Each structure stands twice: as structure tokens, then as C-alpha cells.
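Handout, section B. The chain below has 164 residues.
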Amino acid sequence: MEFKVGEIVEGKVKSITNFGAFISLPEGKTGMVHISEIAHAYVSDIRQHLTEGQAVKVMILAVDPNGKINLSIKRTTAPPERQNHPRRSFDKRPQDRPGPQNRNQERPQQDRPRQEPQFSRAYTPAPSKDQSFEDKLKQFMSESDSKLSSVRQYSEHKTKTRRR
């Protein structure tokens, strides 16, 4: 008997390994079901789904010219229906959430003086549009030189302390 791809046949579980199960087929042939083809759900341990000697229906997936037969158990049964999970709270639209629609209703605005942002480095304002290109370039170069000199001083200090 020649096995055809897509055909469903009866077999018995011959042996179980970590990666799949070997199935005895009619006419003394043997095929293998990979662990991913045992059930529709994730299978971590094949022994939870199959036992040696158990009769199973399998679908022929492929027949290798060398005689290897790939089988599937899960393709002989219909996949389970997906359950509709209730929407999670982060999926809800703002109008579906409990509480006031406008968040500002809960928190009254306080009259606080506006604080200017604090900068860790010296802040230099952006050059005005009235400056010429040369003036902007001179300002940039002087700022750059001062920053580089502070970096150089810091790195020299670090190398001196390491050499000791």
C-alpha cells in the first residue's frame, strides 16, 4: 500500500522521544509525528498527550524518497474555537471608563507662579537673526573651545589620578 499525502490512517504509538513520537502504520511501516504536530495547544511534554501502545489517527504530511513518513495528529481534528476574551481595561475607550469624563474636573487648577527651567550647564541664548554669519560662527567657536577645554581638563585630571 502506497501512502498518499493528505491521507488519514490509523496507527499505534510505537515509542516516544523528546522531539516527537514514532507511529506504527499498516504494512509494518513507521512514521514520525513531530512535537509541534501533536496538539493545537503548546506541548511541552509529549507524554501528557500520548502513551505507548495508544491507537491514534494520523494524517500523512510527506513521504520522503528514503522512506521517511512525516505525520500529524493535530491536523486530523478541527482546531478549537477561539475564546472571545473580555476587553481589558487598557483597551477601553475614554467614554467607557468609569469616573468623570474630563480629568480636569477632579483636580482644580492651582495658581502657581511659573518656574523657569533649570539648566545644569550655562545657558546661551540662540543667536539673533540680526547677526551675520561670521558673528554666529565666532560665537559658536568660542563656546566650542570653552567646552573642549573643560573636557580636556577633566580628562587630564582623570589620567593623573589613575597613574598613581
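Note. The first strand starts at residue 8 and ends at 16. Compare this with the example in section A.
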